[in-house]
Known about the structure:
By secondary structure, the protein is of the alpha+beta class. It contains 8 helices and 5 strands; from the N terminus they run ααααβααββαβαβ. The chain has a 5-stranded mixed sheet with strand order 2-3-1-4-5, sandwiched between helices. It is elongated. The protein is about 65% helix and about 10% strand.
Amino acid sequence: MxxxxxxxxxxxxxxxxxxGLAARxxxxxxxxxxxxxxxxxxxxxxxxxxxxxxxxxLEDGVGEALGRPGELLRWRSWVWVILDLSIPAxxxxxxxxxxxxDRLEAELAAAVRRDPLTLLPNRTGFAEEATVALAxxxxxxxxxxxxxxxxxxxxxxxxxxxxxxxDVVLRDVAAAMxxxxxxxxxxxRVGGEEFALVLPGVDVKGAxxxxxxxxxxxxxxxxxxxxxxxxxxxxxxxxxxxxxxxxLESGLRSADGxxxxxxxxxxxxxxxxx
Length: 274
């Protein structure tokens, strides 16, 4: 086998390899969740075409290089080699661009539902996750409790030590509370220093110890001021009766009233809606 034959064979083999990689990418894309049926079938058809191109390229390379050794290859054969090689290379480039687009879309979708500072759900994400939790609890016949929580004297932290210090407190309090939650509990940041919580599977009596643990967790967060100062939480609890956003909003309004009662009673405590 002379040098041109070997070069031709290697180029055809490279085309076959790239076609296989591109076909795998197309097939994987067809199996992504949420894909429309038409797009899935287009991706599968593209994978089949690429596999066929790879097989033909390899067969042509072997036939030309080994079937007719020593014969000079026509210039048109070299042109087709380069064109065929460019097809899977371009497909792979397009797939890489689509993966990047999918990643950006996922990040944007998460940003719509997540608070970037605390990484907790925001109001939109909380409504979605809490509605799912309410529906699951209703199917199992379990009670649900809602809570509103607020960092005490948070404005004084911002005014006295700056918004940067306030952001650190918010982030650390959110992380401390999240570590105390059970699977299925839904905690969200719904205001500046205000959090909302849905607790499926417990009544008010069972929820009070959970809220006390959250209050204790917040107290472990360092205060930006003097060592003697502590970060404290006030919270209000109420039963959520029914499913859906209307029931959730009604229960949280009652919990918010209990939160204001806790603040009026001296803060750093948990109150139950009357």
